[in-house]
Amino acid sequence: MKILLAIFLFLHGLIHLMGFAKAFQYGSIPQLKTEISKLTGIFWLIASFLFIGSGVLLLLSYNFWMFTTIPALMISQVLIFKSWSDAKYGALANIIILIALILCFGSYRFEKEYKNDVKVHLENSKNKVSELLTEADLQTLPLPVQKYLRYSGVVNKPKVRNMKVVFEGEMREKGKDYFKFRSEQYNFIDQPARLFFIKAEMFGITVPGYHKYTEAKASMDIELFGIFPIIQHSEAVMDTTETVTFFNEMCLLAPATLIDKRIQWKVIDNKSVKATFLNKNIMISAQLFFNDNGQLINFISNNRTEMNAGKTYPFSTPIISYKNHNGIYLMNDAEAVWQYPDGKFTYGKFHLKEIIYNYE
């Protein structure tokens, strides 16, 4: 879609060169019968450069393309009115570009809200010194959790205040095919917050979604082009659901945070524990399962609600593979699974592309 729009901008810009050529008599331009002054010809050239420049910026993924397209459209439309009998079909091209511009700006504005929230939270966690996590910090943890932290390699490394995470993968709803997605998120530990922005590819269109979890309150907003609402949730049940998600990511993505005093542990056996996590007035629990190597291999909670169905089912995230990410051994591939009454349903496949701790 981006490439098609960029090509359209290029072509529309090149067509505007005809007005410039006509004004300065560079060859025969039989399509334009109306006389064009040299001053007007310069404006045809300016519009051409603006459209072509917008196409280049779009291909390079610079959002500034939208702001160069606005004056291009304004100049172009004035010129078309001046040569209406010859250039009236150019107005249709301008309308197409204007519609695309409005839709793209909606997506830009929607993502900007997420980025502004990230900026505020990063500012609040800025300049906070991270102490090193030591063996002494592990002593109150159950032995399987201690082994997991040692395996991960977090001992004698900075404690985690926040993290930036990028995933790629596939998701689906029951009875539907998988769609590809790419997500970026920031998690903040001291004052629990999770800001998760996803771009899903559906029917050749990028559909953005923003999950926000702060002050133990959660919301989910998915909008086509950032304008037309598709899914919106902010019910109390989602606060609990997102608390499970937040704790799940502490376990899978930031093992160093498992020394947190808001977690209460109960040993089940030498390869599994039960954890209870409290954030403000919301308490959730989960079982963590480990293998002989100390790897966390699954996380299961009964406190997460499937929002589309409005029902609570057992939720799990089996880890498929591990990888060294900047000196820390973490999940590289994992799945998100609902245990429905009629069997297990894998609704998400996640591949970890990037993780940065204590991002500033």
Largest sheet: 14 strands, antiparallel
Highest-level CATH class of the largest domain: Mainly Beta
- C-alpha termini separation: 33 Å
Total number of domains = 2
Uncertain residue segments: none
User: What is the strand tally?
Assistant: 16
Overall 3D shape: elongated
Total number of helices: 8
* Average pLDDT, all residues: 92
Describe the protein's topology:
Blueprint (H helix, E strand, L loop, with lengths): L1 H22 L14 H22 L5 H18 L1 H4 L1 H37 L9 H4 L4 H10 L9 E10 L7 E10 L4 E10 L2 E10 L2 E8 L3 E6 L2 H18 L9 E7 L2 E8 L2 E9 L5 E6 L3 E2 L4 E2 L2 E2 L2 E7 L2 E13 L2 E15 L3
Helix pairs in contact: 1-2, 1-5, 2-3, 3-5
Question: How does this model look, in words?
Answer:
It is elongated and about 90 Å long. It folds into two domains: 2-104, no CATH class; 131-357, Lipoprotein localisation LolA/LolB/LppX (outer membrane lipoprotein receptor (LolB), chain A, Clam). Helix 1 (2-23) runs antiparallel to helix 2. Helices cover 38% and strands 35% of the residues. The protein is built from eight helices and 16 strands. It has helices at 2-23, 38-59, 65-82, 84-87, 89-125, 135-138, 143-152, 236-253; strands at 162-171, 179-188, 193-202, 205-214, 217-224, 228-233, 263-269, 272-279, 282-290, 296-301, 305-306, 311-312, 315-316, 319-325, 328-340, 343-357. The protein is of the alpha+beta class and 360 residues long. The longest helix is centred in the N-terminal third of the chain and has 37 residues, at 89-125. Strands 1, 2, 3, 4, 5, 6, 7, 8, 9, 10, 13, 14, 15 and 16 form a 14-stranded antiparallel sheet that branches. A two-stranded antiparallel sheet has the order 11-12.
